[in-house]
Amino acid sequence: MQYKRLGNAVAVVLASAVGLSMAASIKPIQAETSDGSLPEVTATSLETDNAQPEVRSDVAKVGESASQQTATLSEVEIPAIAKVFPHTADDRQAATVYVRNIPVLTFLGDTVEAEADDQSATEQRKLAASKVAPPDADQPLWKANKLVAEFNQLNRTGEVNGEEISVRWEDDLYIIEHGEEILVTLDDDTVLPDTTGAAGEDALQATNRLRRLLGQEEAGPLTLVADLPAPPEPEPKQVVAYGGSFYEQGEASWYGPGFHGRTTANGETYNQWAMTAAHKYLPFGTVVRVTNLYSGAAAVVRINDRGPYAHGRVIDLSAAAADVIGMDGVASVRIDILN
Question: What predicted TM-score, i.e. pTM, was given to this entire model?
Answer without folding.
Answer: 0.47
